[in-house]
Amino acid sequence: MEHRYPTITLFGSLSICGGEGAARTSLSGSTGDVFAYLLAYAGKDVRRERLADLFWTESEPARARAALNTAVWRINKALAGLEGIALKSGGEHLMLQTSPEARVDARLLEAAVRDASAQAAEGVLDTLVRARLAEVVDDYNGPFLDGSASDWAIVERERLNSLHLRGLSILMRDCAARRDYEEALVYGRRILAADPFREQAQCEVMWLYVLNGQRPHALRQFETYRRQIAREMNVAPMAETRALADYIREGHDAAVEFAELRSFGDLQAATERSRRGAMASFGLS
């Protein structure tokens, strides 16, 4: 018999797909919020009172309880016939039980970023870890529970968005460490498309352009950013960012490795180390 383990999407619109690949249903509104919350705390008892207070804040207790019961019925209906996931009810508590075979995009992102972060601290990523991280960041189809206005969803949305950006940053830096600057720029531009005011990423993208032999692109990147924050925030780039732009504008060579640029405050020292290394290779002092 074919297994029917689900794939659950929480990024963008919440949906549940059965093992056969067809979309079975989507859960919206407060029902979707309850399901996502139970999924976040899978394997743990969650008090019904807690859920009623979270998602029906302005309702009378009896109405909130009735609304929760309706949500539980809808969730059970959506999960009917699926393997590896079930909602258990025990008096005043609810528990969502899941198995590893049930694929949840938010969980996969968390696991991939955690594994990649640990490995990146030791050096470049291995092929499997890199491929898994690239897959989950590509599957990020939009904000967590997009459209939900519940306080819990908003907090979780911000956390997972930051995790997605962290995953992109790890991939960008891993590509740079392997000197695949073209691919690193792809990830860098994705970071800035999501958060153009992330100044460290602006600097990293500028230097990636230099390392990729695209110095004019680096300067255009800086000017675009400078005009944007002046127009929208009435501020100027940080001193380190302006110093980097000046450094690029003055035509210095690209001998400073990407990893050395990460502090941004020691460009002169990094350049001097590079110069001395080149002189030593020719027997000069």
Task: Write up this protein.
Helices cover 58% and strands 9% of the residues. It is of the alpha+beta class and 285 residues long. It folds into 3 domains: 7-101, Winged helix-like DNA-binding domain superfamily/Winged helix DNA-binding domain (Arc Repressor Mutant, subunit A), CATH 1.10.10; 105-194; 196-285, no CATH class. Strands 3-2-1-7 form a 4-stranded mixed β-sheet. It has a 3-stranded antiparallel β-sheet with strand order 4-6-5. It is elongated, with a radius of gyration of 24 Å. Mean pLDDT is 87; it is low at 274-285.
Q: How many helical stretches?
A: 11
What is the name of the CATH architecture of the largest domain? Orthogonal Bundle
Derived from helix and strand composition plus strand pairing, the structural class reads alpha+beta
**Separation, N- and C-terminal Cα atoms:** 75 Å
Runs in which pLDDT lies below 50 for 5 or more consecutive residues are 274-285
Roughly what percent helix? 55-70%
Strand fraction equals 5-15%
Q: What name does the CATH topology of the largest domain carry?
A: Arc Repressor Mutant, subunit A
Q: Whole-number average pLDDT?
A: 87
Overall geometry comes to elongated
CATH superfamily of the largest domain: Winged helix-like DNA-binding domain superfamily/Winged helix DNA-binding domain
How would you spell out the order of helices and strands?
Answer: EEEHEHHEEEHHHHHHHH
- Strand tally is 7
Q: Briefly, what CATH class of the largest domain?
A: Mainly Alpha
With strands numbered from the N-terminus, the spatial order across the biggest sheet is: 3-2-1-7
Quaternary form: single chain
Largest sheet: 4 strands, mixed
Computed over alpha carbons, the radius of gyration is 24 Å
